[in-house]
Amino acid sequence: MSDTQLNSYRTLPDDSGRFGLHGGRFVAETLMPLILEVETAYRKTQADPSFASELAYFHKHYIGRPSPLYFAERLTKAYGGAKLYLKRDELNHTGAHKINNVIGQALLAKRMGKTKIIAETGAGQHGVATATACALFDLECEVFMGAEDVRRQKPNVDRMRLLGAKVHAVTSGTSTLKDAMNEALRYWVAHPDTHFYIIGTVAGPHPYPEMVRDFQAIIGTEARAQIIEAEGRLPDALIACIGGGSNAMGLFYPFLDDEDVAIYGVEAAGHGIDTGLHAASLTGGRPGVLHGNRTYLLQNDDGQITDAHSISAGLDYPGIGPEHAWLHDIGRVNYVSATDEEALVQFQQCSRLEGIIPALEPSHALAFASTFLPTIPKDHVVILNMCGRGDKDLEAVLPKLDERGLL
Amino acid sequence: MTERIASCFKKAADEGRSVLGVFVTAGDPSEAESDRILDQLVENGADFVELGMPFSDPMADGPAIQAASLRALAGGMTLLKTLAMAKRFRERHADIPLILMGYYNPIYNYNPDKFITDAVDAGVDGLIVVDLPPEEDSELCDPARAAGLSFIRLVTPTTLGNRLANVIEKAGGFVYYVAIAGITGTKSADISSIGNAVGRIKEVTSLPVVTGFGIRTPEQAREAASRGDGVVIGSAIVSLIEEASSAERSQEGAIAGKIGSVCATLSDAVRS
Question: In terms of DSSP bridges, do strands A237-242 and A262-270 run parallel, antiparallel, or are they unpaired?
């Protein structure tokens, strides 16, 4: 191995699924044979060029990849600093980055001979993407969604039902994304032979964090080639929002070894970190074990998981992918946060200045960009992952914009 | 320590009968009533006790035990208090095996080494930590065994293939056969498959084998127990707390008494 490889940030996880302290396979014995089966099958597809070409076909003709890298001139002017490029993953079929991962896992499930799919969803974007892939590939689909999220993301629930998925409203625990994931895992335990669990983010037991990252890395791979074409060089910084962290991991991963590229992950600060009502696991949590992996978690003094709070259902999760936890520990990525209020302002501003209605999730990334860009030189170049579109959020956001006189 | 588990099974074998284990969640419905419930279980024929360490996100449990955890946590239960409850139990009952069952995060948060020390000090005999498969043995299983605690393994229908030897390797106390593919308290165990499974397990270990998950009625308990060395009943007992009337809740010992009488019925069934 050469020195450069030894110094690479792209060699993990190890064989036991660890990213430093984080990751692993903390699941009940009932699930162990299943995740080992997934790992074996995934390794086989990695070595199979026909899988890559099948995936590439659906990227191009079904999802609509590559997504554009767009110079946001008016936002750049408004922020008054470095040049801002948006990676337009909100233009993907189904309106978010989630489909990149789902198509990959659904193809894997088919190769494994599975006929039924389970998924958890928070904002509903992963649920919609999974229901979509299941329609496409003729798979049965069951989506677990917290009852609270079913209420606040009704348009996505309707889309899933139209696509033929069965949506289970989860009322256990706090009725949000973490409980949906508990319930999906419980359901998988009870149906080990027929079902494949498509996890929507870079979390869960090994090999999910690695597999989801690999399927999302297309975002960063494209962005890297596109920025070199547009600017003739690598960017100075990357920005992405983080709930579980799949869009961020997808953008960041191909740039991790480019040490001159500064990387920023933006967690949801909810009402503010100091209020305790937030979803910032790295900023406000500490290491623990949940949903099959060790990572930073929001928890109380007794190790009980506490509720996350965010206006964005997609960021409303008390944990974060284990690779982010590791990148935080070693300092390669800077993790910052933005509040509900800051995200709302950007939701409106991006719509007005660029004609792009961002989802609430990337509105958090925009909020950080708005304060960060003015602090760096004007000739610097920054890529922000516009990972989803905001149509799903209108019902929740418009009354709040009205209250603030922003409409 | 582990001798208590071995002698419990030996005593039952000498008497030509199976063993009854009962699961309850520590602090459900309250700390004081929980102490009384444990006494009632012992007085009414439970051969060993599994004391649940409540957790906010019990991934392998069905609605009954999820609710029990949340009730206990709402009442202020913590891992520290569970260990204190275990210690009080040991002071009152010198010989009954006591097993702590739960999930890893509260233990990890408490500090695994300190947890092992305090569990040994409290007179705990064994641990069942649902989300620590053999792949994660260095976290808790290895140091717990070194300290003399039995690390009890769950064996599921999906384990019976090529994982069985690996799962049994460091198992202590007894092997817990999970009779259903699923979570606690949701399906009825397929009694007819238990005999085969227990036979498979006994090919690779000399430890006793007990069956749990999906055993609710005295009849199921008798049938399942006769196909191995014992049974564990959890959700069916824990549900009695949820179903308790407000009059029973407000009267000290009423819930414990009710659980005691159900335990006696189960014990009679297992012994018959």
Answer: parallel
CB contact under 8 Å between B181 and A30, yes or no, is: yes
CB-based contact B133 A178, cutoff 8 Å: no
- For the record, the structure tokens of B46 come out as 């439970």
Identify the DSSP state of A91. G
Prediction pTM value: 0.96
Whole-Å CA distances, A400 to A56, A309, A344: 41, 17, 8
Over the Cα atoms of chain B, what is R_g? Answer: 17
Q: Cis ω on the peptide bond leading into residue B29 (within 30° of 0)?
A: yes
The residues, ordered by sequence, that sit 6+ positions from B16 with a Cβ below 8 Å of its Cβ are none
Residues 6+ apart with CB under 8 A from A171: A147
Q: Locate tokens 């239960």: which residue? A: B77
Chain A residues with CB under 8 Å of B108 CB are 287-289, 294, 303
Q: Between helices B254-271 and B31-43, what is the axis angle to 10°?
A: 30
Yes or no, beta carbons of B156 and A30 under 8 Å apart:
yes
Alpha-carbon dihedral sign for residues B134, B139, B145, B148 = negative
Report the DSSP beta bridge partners of residue B212: B178
- Residue among B33, B47, B50, B118 flagged as catalytic: B50
A178 CB neighbours in chain B (<8 A) are 57
**Per-residue buried b or exposed e for A192-209, using 16+ beta carbons within 10 Å of the residue's own CB:** beebbbbbbbbbbbbbbb
Order of strands across the sheet with A262-270? Answer: A69-71, A83-87, A381-385, A237-242, A262-270, A334-339
Burial (CB count within 10 angstroms: exposed 0-12, middle 13-18, buried 19+), residue A392: buried
Distance between A358 CA and the closest CA of chain B, angstroms: 33
- For residue A4, pLDDT over 50 is answered with no
Opening angle at CA A205, ends A16 and A93, nearest 5: 125
Chain B partners within 8 Å of A297 (Cβ): 105
CA A296 – CA A281 distance, rounded (Å): 6
Of B251, B271, B269, B199, nearest to B32 by C-alpha is B251
β-strand pairing of A83-87 with A116-121: unpaired
Within 8 A by CB and 6+ apart from A18, the residues are A12, A24, A206
- Residues A26-83: tens digit of each pLDDT: 999 989 999 999 999 999 999 999 999 999 999 999 999 999 999 999 999 999 999 9
Q: How confident is the model at residue B1 (pLDDT cuts 50, 70, 90)?
A: very low
Mutation to test the A interface, candidates B59, B69, B110, B153, most A Cβ within 10 Å: B59
ω into residue A68 within 30 of 0, thus cis? no
* Cβ contacts of A172 on chain B, cutoff 8 Å: 63, 66
Cα–Cα nearest to A194, from A120, A116, A105, A139:
A116
Q: Dmax of chain B from CA atoms?
A: 52
The verdict on a CB contact (< 8 Å) between B182 and A190 is yes
Q: Which helix (H) or strand (E) holds B176?
A: strand B175-178
- Tell me: pLDDT of B2 over 70: no
Contacts 24+ apart (CB under 8 A), A299-303: A299/B105, A299/B109, A301/B78, A301/B109, A302/B78, A302/B79, A302/B80, A302/B106, A302/B109, A303/B55, A303/B79, A303/B105, A303/B106, A303/B107, A303/B108, A303/B109, A303/B110
Q: Is A15 on the interface with B (CB under 8 A)?
A: no
Q: Give CA–CA dist A292/A21, Å, rounded.
A: 14
User: Which of A377, A351, A376 has the alpha carbon at shortest distance from A366?
Assistant: A351
